[in-house]
Amino acid sequence: MKQNRYTLSKLLLCLFLQAVSSWQGYTYAQVTASIDNSPVDKKVLATDLHKPLKQALNELSTRYNASVIYNLQTVENKFVTRQTQSPARIEDALQNLLGPLNLHFEKVKEHVYVVVPPKESRKENRPDGIEAARTTSLPLLDNSLFNPLQARMNTMLLARMEQKTAITVRGRVTSDNGEGLVGVNVIIKGSTTGVTTDGEGNYTLTVPNGNGTLIFSYIGFLSKEIPINNRSVINVQLATDERLLSEVQVVGYGTQSKAEVTSAIATVTAKEIKDMPLVGLDQALQGRASGVQVTNNTGAPGGGVSIRIRGTSSLGAGNEPLYVVDGVPINNTQTFNQQTGEERINGMSNINPADIESIEILKDAASTSIYGARAANGVVLITTKRGKAGKQQIDLTSYYGFSKATGRYNVLGASDFAILSNEGLASIKAAPVFTQAFINNPTTNTDWQDAVLRTAPTANINISTRGGTEKTQYMLSAGYMDQQGILIDSRFKRYNLRVNLDQRINKKVKIGNSLMVSYTDNNRLRNNGTPRSDAGGNHLYGSPVLTTALTRSPATPIRLPNGEYSFDPLAPLIANPVAMALAQHLDNKTIRLIGNLFAEWEIIRGLRFRTQLGTDVRFENEDFFYEPFQAAVQGNGTGTGSVRNFNEVLWLTENYLTYDFGLGKDHKFQALLGTSFQESRLEEAFSYVGGFVSKNVTTLNGGSTILTSTSNAESWGIASYFGRLNYNYKSKYLLSINARLDGSSRFGANNKYGFFPSASVGWNLSEEEFMKSSTTISNLKFRASYGITGNQEIGNYSYIGTFGVGGGANTGRNYLNRLGAVANNIPNDDFSWEQTAQFNVGADVGFLNNRLSLTADYYIKTTTDLLLNLPLPRTSGFSSTLTNIGKMENKGFELGINTINLNGAFSWSTNLNFSMNRNKVLSLIGGQDIAVNEATLIREGQPISFWVYEREKNVNPENGTVVIVDQDKSGGAVNSLDRVIMGSPLPKHIGGLTNTFGYKGFDLNIFFQWSYGNKIYNQTRKWMEGLNRDLNSTIGYNTTQVSFDKRWQKPGDVTAYPGVFYDNRSANNLLPHNGWLEDGSYLRLKTLTLGYNLPRSVTSKLQIASARLYFSSNNLLTFTRYSGYDPEVSHFTGSGLGGNVAMGYDYGTFPQPKTYTLGLNISF
Amino acid sequence: MKKIHNKGYRLVALLLIGFLVNGCNTLDQKPESALAQDGFYSNGTDAELGLIGTYNRLFTENHIVGTYMLLDMNSDDLTTAAGKFGYIMENRGDMSSVNHGTTESYFQAPWVTIANANLFLEKVKDIPPTAFVGATTANDKRKDEVLGEAHFIRGLSYYYLTMLWRNVPLILNFPAGALPEDNQIPNSTQPEVLAQVVKDLQVAEANLPNSMTQFSANERRGRASKWAAKGFLSRIRLQEKNWQEVVKLSDEIINSGQYSLVNPWTTMFLGDQNSGEAILEIQAEAGPGFFNMGIHGWFYGNGEFRATDDAVAQYEKPRKDARYEYTIKDDKVSNKFLPQPLWANEGIARANLVMLRLGEIYFNKAEALNEINYEANKQAVLTILNTFRARAQDANFANRFRPTLPVGTTGIPLLTLADVDTPEKMRQAIRAEKRRELMFEGVRWLDLLRWDPAYAAQIVKASSPDRLYFPIPENEILLNKGVLKQNPGW
């Protein structure tokens, strides 16, 4: 018997070493509910009262739908008494199993547990290889019992005997947060010699000579090979194996084993986004997941973000995904106010990215249809960090940095501007306003871009603590962020608190909560839009800062000698941009509370009931104050002030049952049945007061006249019933059926309820016998799904005809100081849900023990009954009507590749994601084109496109005017038939490429992100190179140097740039023509991070667990042909046709900054 | 242990009950900040509310106020420089159905008024007369009145639409369907539209009392009235050369006892306005904001538009004719409707726009009398003209822009029969005096269209008489999928 065991040990050791030397993969056994590939010891099975621990663990993992990981040798030859009762929690079950055997377990993550041997055995350090192998718990591949290579074993054993000149190596093995790892196997490569680390993570090992290589391996971590190089101390840090930790996939209303997932879900983990100095966590998704297009609408701190998951699938009903934070589908209302026009606040900016554990992006119908009527644009599940039983962990993360503009426009200085203006005046036979003396030697030459752009500091600090007992777990965090914008006077500050608790009441019942409270203080600017102060939300005041800076005369100073802001009588509508920034104060303060309370009850084994109460509360208060007596604009100038209050309260109650059960050994089921009721109400009030004479009293009582005072209240509700059935046969064949019935208050009685089903199937080829032996392909799964989801993001009450009431005489509906009512719309009883049917096929492939893993998906998404505000003939009295008008398709291909290129002392891994989406409008009502705005068109058979006039490349050499190609050959005046489709704002493909390198304590992360094939309509440049002149102005706008240098000046000049005309000759140039359309493709070094983990020698002296210092830069390099500030731009936001469809407009948009940060993370 | 166990279940049960209760009525959400169309117009209060809303749309910046700007821009009284606001509108040479300046917004706005008036007329006719507030024996005519007011609003809207855009569709019902094809309506001809205008105005004329005494004197001027209906009818009759009808209508207004010519002339435009001469005057709200109805005056008065040399030449000066001194500043900027002060409350101050006044009615009568029979009516016509000429003298006139100038205007000589001894001379005298009197009051262009289309064409650089009217904006043609045709000549 002894002999037998010895032989077996040798055999196993040999096999292990062979496996390690060929591939350092997983040196542990792992079971999940679906993958149970460990051979069962037949001998032991025979006994009835006892069964092997391994088998018990396998069964347990199946029952609790969890992964239990163990060293084969730890559990070998251990038996448990058969349990008759099964506790509610896996923790209790594990304790029952392992306790009597003097084994312990650790919870690595939700649903992932590791069995650890008794501490005493870990401390043993036996120098002799054979002896060590016999007595320590060396990891062995669970499925490597076949194909022994006895000869090779003998050779190696012989070699072992000849070792001489041994040296002793010691060191400490730590995790990436600096904690000592207990029980790490340290093996001399090519030998059987090894030890395990002690309770502090220390090891001492005698090696035959100083030329060998040590292999460090530990379950749940990536193994490392370190050459000894005659060193006597080798400290090692092991990185967590993310793939292992994410074995469980968060899905709607639950979790699922990743191997069983049959839908298209992308995951972004906290780790990937941790070093990015971002305000909104949605920004962090950019370039991280395939199929997800993230566009920052503005670079303003806390500004709006547009997210498109698998393309634009709606024209008029919103394209933003549904965000679900810890089970609460939250509001993502982007509020705006008249002072800032299109520049909005990001609804996600209240959530602290540092609290996020993971973000799952549900893309196909199989994963989203459980969210029914709100899922057509995809669902983003946000899971925040929770407490873990065990030692308290305190983490401090902080960074400090600054940001700068990525570029500048080259605009004219005062001298050239004077020439330009005089030329314009000459074109209408008016006298010049600038003297030759001024042109020769300008007395004032202001660089307005310099005046409004700045280098802006950013600071962020977060502190969190996690821990708890088996009964109570907590996660507490506090955060502070202060990000200043690169335009003067813009700033975003956020204060966050979070409390996430879990409490076990008894064996069956557990309660808990998530709660986030945040306060943000956002100094906003009126920025995007036309430089003219008389257009936009407010006629008299408020020119956008950046566009005015680009177009204002450089011949005017910032301030007059008396300190007042200058006013330009030659162009009175272009205000002083510095005054626009500094004399206007727009301060938005938001309090946001997102949280839930839940209770979970395991009624019988496998049947669980969960009830949850969730809320999302938002209080927003926005103060505006415009200081009195500004010479910067025309008119005198008493000040104005406004206060806007907005509050939105969302309630959610959900109750659902989940039942996990099996039929026989091979059939496993997971069922879900539940209800959800949600209601949200918003109230807003706006008061606008004029007649301020002092700038010291900025509250509304400081003004004398109420200009506007109004309020509004709206609410909506949704009642839902949902269910899911997952079935798998031997983990090979997978089936999932989801359905949701949603009733929405936004639809009329005939269409109040919508039904949204989906089904998906999967085939785990790697589970088939013929694939199991493959050493190349470690994982192979095919998936297919089809389902229907809906979109209800239209206004409240749209289905009924309404009258607007009141609101004053001039902007409202009153007259004669009497209240008036005006019809808002033509009632349309027939409109119904927008439905998106999506077909998805995909494959997950892992090669070489998943060292190379690949996920590919192809989808076809067809949206029917598109909800759109369709333009009406104005003779109807209405500009548009909300109706179901047509059909649109998005189809695309997504690819995600993860590779671990090197995993020795020098580690290198690569992550690539690539997405292409093709959008096409399949049909529109009556085949009618829909002109969205200035240059965007929706036309059957085309993607959402730019629709512009085509200009001849060169101007008419005779008269210097822009020539529009006469497409319709009418020969006459330019008309709409001369317009043509020229490109689309939608990219042909987008993607992200991340390379992560590690060497000793250093890590380097290089993240590129790109967008290819999209066009941008550069309205910013049009304002300049349009050579426009405002009404009431003597002179025109400033322009770019190139348009000035190359302008047409005399007959015969052949150039692309027209002459300077202040009359109708400039008309064609001011049309939306292709001269303003530019290639918006870019490749951007989005993030570059270089980090250094302080060595143990330093951290132990400082008495901290770990410390990481890093330098990070965002948007460091951008490769693009786009001439504007930033190719990452899309002015229009919000729902409705304009915001949804009119993408790719640059409207003097607040550019993305380039940031440099220095960060420090410390764990205690 | 057992106790804790029970507590746990109790907690779950409580949560469950509490959470389920909340789920009720989730789908029952009613608008709170707007009125549902369904069930509205069920009583008199609703009708008054809808009527005020319809007036509000009529008098917006883009509807009537814009219309008056277009009319004056087209005329030979007002002009603007190349590249300035309004230049395209007064220059058919540079205009096309695509490049039409801001005429598109002025074309669109009247239809909002019309749709609201149509809805009103459709619904209110079913409200019982007794459902109106104050429907007692003493005043049971309110229902007729509100219908009359709505007909007036619709008639006025169509009148100006067809006078500017010629062959517009004639829509007399609120849209029956919400889709574009439900709302693609072909053009009607200008005579057809004008016939409907007459019908509407006649309903107003018949339904409205001599005076809606339940309203204040100022409010009466701000609303439709029997007399305003007659006044606009008289304009159309002039156009039809139905001289007898013009005289009849004019006399009815003149003899109604509701209005009188005021002296001094500036009374009409100063202070609170609402002079005895005003028949229809938009009551600008004293409230603040740029969109105040004073926008009209602002455009005229801030230098966008300037009086033409020809307009300036119409007057005897300096300091003879109060009308000139008040109307045109030295820089040819008009300040007839310039609010006082120009800026107030962060916007344009209040200034009423006088849409129709008794003065015009006298000129209509004079013109008709002269056309009917010069010999018989020459003395009566002369008296009318001299009544207006006499008002040029204003001993107390103070130039508010140039306070240093001496007070008073000295007046202009009255005409004698010798000055106007032929029908043609009389005709020219009437036209010249009317121009001086009503300059920038939206009348001149309408007069030129009937008096001298060739001259009118010359003013707006129209290559053909068809181009006296605006093109229907290209977008409308597109949205109407060819059902609505472009006006001839464009």
Task: Report on this structure.
The complex is a heterodimer of chains A (1164) and B (490). Chain A has 1164 residues and is mainly beta. Chain A contains 21 helices and 55 strands. In chain A, the strands form 12 sheets. Chain A has a 22-stranded antiparallel β-barrel. A 5-stranded mixed β-sheet of chain A has the order 16-21-22-19-20. A 4-stranded mixed β-sheet of chain A has the order 1-3-6-5. In chain A, helix 3 runs antiparallel to helix 5. Chain B is mainly alpha-helical and 490 residues long. Chain B has 2 domains: 42-208 and 457-490, Serine Threonine Protein Phosphatase 5, Tetratricopeptide repeat, CATH 1.25.40; 242-451, Serine Threonine Protein Phosphatase 5, Tetratricopeptide repeat (Alpha Horseshoe), CATH 1.25.40. Chain B has helices at 2-22, 44-58, 61-74, 103-124, 142-165, 190-207, 217-222, 226-239, 243-254, 295-301, 309-313, 322-327, 358-372, 374-390, 423-437, 444-451, 453-459, 474-479, and strands at residues 34-36, 78-79, 278-282, 306-307, 343-344, 347-348, 353-357. Chain B is globular and about 110 Å long. The interface between A and B is large, with 107 and 104 residues.
Neighbour order of strands in the largest sheet of chain B: 2-4
Structural class of chain A: mainly beta
Overall mean confidence score, pLDDT of chain B:
87
CATH architecture of the largest domain in chain B: Alpha Horseshoe
Give the fraction of residues assigned to helices of chain A.
10-25%
CATH class of one domain in chain A: Mainly Beta
Shape of chain A: globular
Strand coverage percent of chain A:
35-45%
- Percent of residues of chain B in helical segments? 40-55%
Biggest interface, residues from each chain: A-B, 107 and 104 residues
Number of helices of chain B: 18
What would you call the structural class of chain B? mainly alpha
What is the alpha-carbon Rg of chain B in Å?
27 Å
* Unreliable stretches of chain A: 1-48, 120-164, 535-541
Order of helical and strand elements of chain B: HEHHEHHHHHHEHEHHEEEHHHHHH
The major pleated sheet of chain A works out as:
22 strands, antiparallel, barrel
Shape descriptor of chain B: globular
